[in-house]
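Archive transcription. Copying these from loose printouts into the bound notebook so they stop getting lost. Printout 1 of 2:
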Amino acid sequence: MNAFVTVLSTELMRRLRSRAFVVGLIFGSLGIALVTRLPAVLASMSFSQMHEVALAGPAALTEPAKALLERDGDLDARIVPAPAQPPSAAMLRAWHVGSLLRLSRDGNRLRVVIYAADPSTIELSAVRGPLLPLDVSLSAHRPPMQLREDLNFPVEVRSVARFQNAAQSEAAHGIAYLLLVLLYMLIVFNSQLVLTSVAEEKTSRIAELLVASVDLTTLLAGKIVASTFLAVLQMGVWMIIGAALSSGGSGTSTTGFDAASLSAIPLATIIGFLAFFVLGFLQMAVLFAGVGALVNRTEDLGAVSGPLFLPVIIAFIVAIVALTNPDAPYVIVGSFVPILSPFVMFARIAVSTVPAAQLLAAALIDTLCVVLFALAGGRLYRVGMLLYGRAPTLRQVVRTIVGIHS
């Protein structure tokens, strides 16, 4: 036990003082801050052609059209003098708009001609829907705003799932996506650090000194526990920064989620994220440590780590799909497959109600896989740390994993 504590504390202090960890923590925090605040910054600086329109025509049409577009269409409309000729792109730029809506009467109907600098930015529904009361008012001879109230009959949405309203559902999907990205980043980054750490110790011949004084099983366990602790520490720092910046100091989130929606996210989502993060990280860490012990040159790390990251990439892609279709058969199956399970099951937890039996089964399978991966990785680690010179053959690796001794 004393040896394990010594290895754990030494590995923690070494990693905490390492340049890679400090740089990763700082740049990761900056990345989280950038992702959190970038949408609001771009929204405040950008010029959206879809939301800036000019209106030209008789005042009896342009005045109510302006009120309808700004209230129901989320458009910034301004009334301009009707040009004698079709407007040019330079004229639209002078008005600081992306399009001009020329309004006129065609008998008892409204006629709208849109002159756009970029027709691909125009959504006809964003114009036709809000101006419908004005069109009907021309034939019904009623004020357009009164018709708007008549057409705005109440529609109530009642949820039959875990979310009470659309805001909660949107917040859950958005937060789940961000947490999945965070999960992917942490597993990839910290697993790579485990791989690099083991390979550097071996190639620098430090392993010979370590093996002489510490049991290899204790050494591997200390490295894995230290890496898990540091990964959780990184995750906590990044989540705190993201939560602080997303609120922007007010009740409204800069990422589009209000405070009420964020507070309605069930605690089970966070607990599930933490649990499956630890299980997923342990699976990858023991594999990376075992494979890293087989590397004789640091130049080979890229070739070795590439195939190991492929299942993680697949798991991330399946999890993103699971956010929109959590009950698809292949998604349900994927939530029980090792390495895929931590990503996919968390996505299902975040956006749907997963039966307790499935949660327990996935957790047991992942835990069993951690044990099996630890046994396999431990054997590779034990053999690889003492193996120098020529790299082991595939047959030797397989025989080592299954415990066959020649």
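Printout 2 of 2:
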Amino acid sequence: MVAGIIILVIIVIIAAWLVSSYNGFVKLRNKCEEAFSAMDVSLKKRYDLIPNFVETVKGYAKHESETLENVIAARNAAMNSTTAEDRIANDNILSGTLKSLFAVSEAYPDLKANQNFLDLQNQLSRIEEEIAGSRRYYNGVINKFNTGIEMFPGNLIAGIFGFKRKPLYEVNDTAERENVKVSF
């Protein structure tokens, strides 16, 4: 009788641990999706702003059509991404093309003085700050999730219920990782 009670208590403890671990992973998975969604909202703002930005630059930099086309193509690729991995890769490409667009604007003093351009540039700057904050939050949640599914004994539960690693939002372009040169 006592052995039966001990076995029952052990089974209840193991079942409670399984349920608790599973629910913890579900909660983390949902936080990962919420973090990606929050980042997606900021990215959508940027996607919506880019055509206005390109049109403003187009009026001043007519012979820079290749750069403008690259920005629009990168925007469309990022918007149409279907997986988190594709979204991350395409968004990194878009960030690079936006830098080239800003470089083009440096060659046109009239453009840099245009109030509409300055307003759009300020809006884009604020959106980029939002995106950076969203990426930090996303990476923090993803890191916690990935750590949980890789550490023992959580890896047992994760394996049983099919929880898989999620990608971090990383800078893949080595040029973006280099120190900025400042010269006077």
